[in-house]
Design a protein that fits this description.
Length: about 140
């Protein structure tokens, strides 16, 4: 009888731990909003390339997980603040009015400050390429 109780308790604890992990994963996925595409079009003088301008909003303390872009990212903070973490560089705080350039294929991530953040980004990418992909 005692063995059954211990086994049941262990299963319950593992279930609670997994439920907590899935809740954290769900929260992490929800905290990184999808970008709102403002414009998307071909570049006449560069065959096979297109420009994408997008706005990304993160809620307070939300995160844009580690990712890469197939081209250079040109970013500008419209509102709020964030911590920008670019591989090979020290983390830096950015606020409304700050900008950055991140080269193609360089892993980076962002974490919104306590008031959230709203960023505009511009990318020149190969036609049909994804705007971003997760980085290892």
């Amino acid at each position: 009888m005692l063995g059954w109780i211990k086994t049941s308790l262990a299963i319950l604890l593992v279930g609670l731990a997994l439920d907590g992990a899935s809740t954290q994963l769900l929260h992490a996925q929800q905290s990184a909003n999808r970008p709102t595409i403002l414009q998307h079009g071909d570049i006449a003088d560069i065959p096979g390339r297109e420009v994408v301008t997008a706005v990304l909003e993160l809620p307070p303390n939300g995160a844009a997980g580690r990712h890469i872009h197939p081209s250079t990212e040109i970013g500008y903070v419209l509102e709020g603040s964030a911590t920008l973490i670019i591989e090979g560089q020290a983390a830096r705080e950015v606020k409304a009015g700050d900008s950055w350039i991140i080269g193609a294929g360089i892993p980076h991530e962002g974490r919104a400050g306590p008031a959230g953040v709203k960023v505009i980004g511009t990318f020149v990418i190969g036609r049909g390429k994804p705007l971003a992909t997760p980085a290892p």
